[in-house]
Design a protein that fits this description.
Two copies of one chain form a homodimer.
Chain A: H1 11-25, H2 32-38, H3 53-65, H4 78-95, H5 100-103, H6 111-127, H7 131-150, H8 180-204
The first copy, chain A, binds a DNA duplex through loops.
Amino acid sequence: MARPRQALLTRERIVEAAATLIDAEGLDALSMRRLATELGVQGPSLYNHFATKAEIVDAVAEAVVAQVDIDVFADCDWREGLRLWAKSYHAVLTAHPNIVPVLATGPGRRPHGLAMAEAVYGALIDAGWSRSRATHIGALMRYLITGSALGSFALGFDNDPELYDRYPHLHRAHELPAHRAAVDEGAFELGLDVLIAGLSDHYDQGVRR
Amino acid sequence: MARPRQALLTRERIVEAAATLIDAEGLDALSMRRLATELGVQGPSLYNHFATKAEIVDAVAEAVVAQVDIDVFADCDWREGLRLWAKSYHAVLTAHPNIVPVLATGPGRRPHGLAMAEAVYGALIDAGWSRSRATHIGALMRYLITGSALGSFALGFDNDPELYDRYPHLHRAHELPAHRAAVDEGAFELGLDVLIAGLSDHYDQGVRR
DNA sequence: CGCATAAACTAGCGGCGTAAGTTTTTGCGC
DNA sequence: GCGCAAAAACTTACGCCGCTAGTTTATGCG
């Protein structure tokens, strides 16, 4: 086949297929040949639309952050904005856990990532936080959100009772994977509550830098 | 060369070389052939000592967590123990950032990882926290520590002023990479302070579950 | 109508993890 | 002291991988 009458590929179709593949089978399952097969095409054809594999993965990451709601800062208190944004971000990452390692490396050059940074940082600055404090708070929230999405805490424990025989306090740790969602959700909520309450106290006491 | 009079490889030598390579050039630079070359040996010889590449990487991760000080819980308040442990963990990860993605996936079956979980969880239980709350706090601390180590927040921003022209609040974001260490350190310290202070308040008010 | 461009193809390079089988040395049981 | 299994290196090779180069053909613009 040479050039078809109707293009078989578009950037959108490629990104969509890549996202589906990553969601379903993980980052490692995404290879150029595999992705091409999924799209009914030979491997190297993808290079007509993206220069490298990294560009495709980046586009998937960008599509994911695009789903985060950053309008929440519009007309509400910085505390509430921060909480709603964090929950939205967290929910998006929970829905697409396999792409998180890519996102965790920072906003990079992706427009939506930068727009999100702008929204968060801007809201904190507008509230009266110093530039350095706003930066710290933004970074901190990101640590909590990506950290919780990246390593499901509960999932890290093996489902094998014998493993914990030598650790008296962990004797029920093998039950953790079964409660994965509840544990991870509880830890995230606790962190969000404590962080925002603590920052709120600082703020109310006039400690804004 | 067949079997040499003196073994060329040991598990220790392999792990050490792998750790050095990962520290110096990143996870991607670690390939079986490259590692073998570094050790003056052919690639497949490594399989006489480790069954898979993943086992080698795991051993490196285990060697890194082994450096975290978990004796800090011995005879001090849970607050102080948590703070000292978190700082030690954070310092170790900061010294070996390239292995963090591996650690972030949880304690798994690694003895030192489990010993650390045991120490943290045990200290919280002994202090009177409920099992579920202790789990949440442990998970939460891990989110903060691995999250901060994984994605240097400041490093994620590109060192290119023009990139931020369209984001009014980010107009100085290109300066962030230069202050990388200070930003990341500040955010981590802020998080640690706020979290421990907040949890301490809950504790003092008798809210332990 | 002619031609540059776009979008598919095929072939192939060097690298990857690892399996299989070979050779030689070591060290233990008789 | 000897025989032989196990250990630890080797070579070869398979099927992936990301990506490059060059080819073919349809499209759309001047």
